[in-house]
Amino acid sequence: MGAGDVRRVGLSGGVGARKVTVLAESAWSLTLFWVACGGVVGWLVTLLADWFVTLSWAPLQGPAELLNSVPEPWQTVGAVGVGAVLGLVVGFTALHESLAVSVSPSRVELRVRDSSQEFGRDEVALAVRDGKKLVLLGPDGMEIARETSELSWSKVAEAFAEHGYRWADEDPYRAEFRLWAPGMPGLPEGADALLRARAVAREKDGGAEDARELRGELLRLGVVVRDEKRRQYWRMPRGS
């Protein structure tokens, strides 16, 4: 995982045709990786079951004894098969959650889950790697997109540079981010409440989509947010 597919597609015919570079995770390799992981986990479960039944104090004695009651080779075949199926489900989920990037001389498109964001050439002043995030910055320094990426960073950088976009391996505004604490001064009206709500959403299982929407609300107030572990950092572009 991490290398992904790179495709260069012609947008018009003839000599000098404009091209769009498409970067996306390889569906085949990503799914195969998780199926293999699931199969290995299933096999390890059979080994653990053999060990657990010898320990009177170990938890899950009932399931371990039930698994051990299945004769070989069906015990191993069944466990590996179930693990592979679960791995297949995880693989499809990971593929659905993965980022795909399309870059052409006139636009940039980011696709993740069932949504896409498209930006014209004049909207993208700089493309940046920030840890595992691909960040797009506007001419005023405002962040216009931030998405998790498992793509090869060298290929992402090459795609942007090939089409004439500026690229940076580190956010040039990183030093301007301040650690957020409830009630701190300097934020526009309403931003502190949104950051509080976002902090709560980030702690919840399944709260990622709420945190994403709240980030968008903060951007509308002129506040850029980045996450580092459980902390939120913020900055306001000059002139906001």
Automatic annotation (TrEMBL):
It holds the Pfam family CysS_C. The keyword Membrane applies. Keywords: Membrane, Transmembrane, Transmembrane helix. The chain crosses the membrane at residues 27-53, 73-95. InterPro entries: CysS_C (IPR056411), PH_YqeB (IPR057798). Residues 21-168 form the YqeB PH domain. Residues 184-235 form the Cysteinyl-tRNA ligase anticodon binding domain. This is DUF308 domain-containing protein. It comes from Streptomyces ferrugineus.
